[in-house]
Amino acid sequence: MTTELTPQQEILQVAAECFMEQGFNATSIDDVARRMNATKGRIYHYYASKIDLFFEIHREGMDRLFSAVLPARKTAGNGITVLAAMLHAHALALFEHHAFESVVVQGVQLHRYGALTPGQRKDLDELIASRDRFEQLFKEQTNLAKADGSLGDLNTSIAVKTMLGGLQWALIWYRPEHDGSIENRKYLADQMVGTLVYGLQSRPPKTAPTHLKEKRS
Question: Is residue 25 part of a domain?
Fold first, then answer.
């Protein structure tokens, strides 16, 4: 059963898709309104500017990541088992909320290189702080895994950035139109997390969905 979106949720979803496809700078409120078959006034009723809309999508994207990963921290098992469960939940969230999480990544770029007013900079600083708290969850779990001996003596910061970066690269190559089923998403997440956590060493194969057995371009 499909849940009907509220007017604000519809704006956020459509705007996230526009930002994902065209980037922040190239996207206008006109683009969002046109895709919705609506007037700009409908969007401005809820959001005062394009950047306010962008920030709200970024905020929603982070909320969805936290909602996915926090329950995974309660997974039974040793440190690396819990870490793998968190990474798996993160990967699935990236697939499910592809457009929103693409905006989160764009927000990091905007924070580093964008021309912002002091007020906009403050708002984006708060959003980046949320992203840092998200990363901290993985650093804490990595340290727990190191402490119980289930993970090697790695540099925690570098290891976590590498793992999260490896997952986030899926925002570039993931194709919802081909890989969007739950079965395919779970398989992709299994393979990604297995590679990140256990490396390239030999391990028992898991059967891929039929179309994913073919060579990926």
Answer: no
Q: What are phi and psi of 204, to 5 degrees?
A: -55, 135
Whether residue 30 is contained in a domain is answered as: no
Three-state SS for 24-72 is: CCCCCHHHHHHHHCCCHHHHHCCCCCHHHHHHHHHHHHHHHHHHHHHHH
* Separation of first and last alpha carbons in the chain: 34
CA distance 172 to 169: 6
Q: What share of the chain is helix, strand, coil (3-state, %, to 5)?
A: 75, 0, 25
- CATH number of the domain that residue 69 is part of: 1.10.357.10
Could you give the C-alpha distances from 3 to 6, 10, 176, in angstroms and in order?
9, 11, 20
56-92 residue pLDDT tens: 999 999 999 999 999 999 999 999 999 999 999 999 9
Q: Summarize pLDDT for 93-125 with one digit per residue, the tens.
A: 999 999 999 999 999 888 888 888 899 989 999
Contacts of 143 (CB under 8 A, 6+ apart): 156
The amino acid present at 161, given as its one-letter code, is K
- CA dist., res. 64 & res. 80, Å (int): 23
